[in-house]
Amino acid sequence: MKRIKAMLHGPMGALLQKELLETWRDRRALWMAICFSLLFPVMLAGGSIFMLKKHTEESTRLALLGADFAPLLADRLRSDSLQVDALEEGEPQTLLAGDYDLVLEVSEGFAGDYRNFEAPPLYLYIDSSASSSGRAERHLQERLGALQQLVVQQRVTARGLAPQLLAPWRLEVRDVSTPSRRGAMLLAAVPGLLILTLFVASLATSVDTSAGERERLSLETLLMQPLPGWQVVVAKTLAVASIGWVGALLAIAALVSLMPLMPLAELGIQQATTTAGVVTMGLLLLPLALLVAVVQILLALRSQSFKDAQTQLSILQVAPVMLLMVLDVSRVELEGFHWQLVPLVGQQQWLKTLLIGEPVPVLSLLAGSCVTLLLVAVAVRIGAGALRRENLLSAT
């Protein structure tokens, strides 16, 4: 402890103060971090509201041609979400190009074939290039299927047979998922976006403090000072990680603040995130922020120019999030203890658990965080060795 205080009051403290001051004075990097931190919570809230509005207010418009041949069909098909207009004539292609999602045509001999217990055809016209055609078709198929089942039961009953003969069993679906689990499905993308915030928020600062200082020749002056290389890397890592971590904290605060405005209750989801959970989310992202910062600095130092560093780090910030998305989509089991030790994967799983209001095992959280910090120490040592390279300042 005394050694740390001595370093902070010596050249190391001055260097750290200088790095933090330069980091938080960079308005471009600061605005970039703030804008992205607020962007995805706002988009998530707006997207959930739009989805609910579309689900509740969206209706299907059906044009029924030849309704006179099946007088009861239009009344049987109508519902709150299915609007049926009986038309005497019309061209299906023209109707689909207008205000209708589907066109259903009844054949002229429908009534006679129906009374003779034959299977008269119904012609359904759709425009598969329209975005709403698939939803509208499924909606109509459900209505027609229920009506067809009703007709079959009536015919069987009229002949003195029990309708149960056509249904050897009855399937009843009972959803045992909890509101918190349904919330996990809706909020599945949030952990990846929070992790992406760390990368984006610290991108500009990490490039400027490494490749940028090298091109401005200020890195050469810094390396001439009587400071060990690891102290230089640590000071830069803490400065870069500070803006990335604050960006992630801002994103968490914005997300929690917008949750009351999101229609979670209408979607059957309870807001289960607690204050302790929010604090834990912020703390568990701190080791990852340090790891992201030091890796970005190392990649920027080995780049050949400022633009090359920006390109490499832009790829870096997308690759881990894409990997996490692939693991989610592929349904890989990530709940084992060994997965909690893997950086990024462990943080993703912990964030998912905290978002639905469930506790995180303290042992796995501490073990995973220690592994992340150990990798930070290894990266700092690698960075200190890189600063001793003679060709560092020439970027070759």
TrEMBL record:
One GO cellular component term: membrane
One of the record's GO molecular function terms: ABC-type transporter activity
Domain (ABC-2 type transporter transmembrane) ranges: 34-325
Compartments it resides in: Membrane
Keyword annotations from UniProtKB, A to Z: Membrane, Transmembrane, Transmembrane helix
Stored Pfam families: ABC2_membrane_3 (PF12698)
Transmembrane segments: 29-52, 184-207, 233-258, 278-301, 360-380
Principal cellular location given in the protein's record: membrane
Keyword Phosphoprotein belongs to the record: no
InterPro entries named in the record: ABC2_TM
Topology of the protein relative to the lipid bilayer: Multi-pass membrane protein
Protein name, as recorded: Sodium transport system permease protein
Organism: Microbulbifer yueqingensis
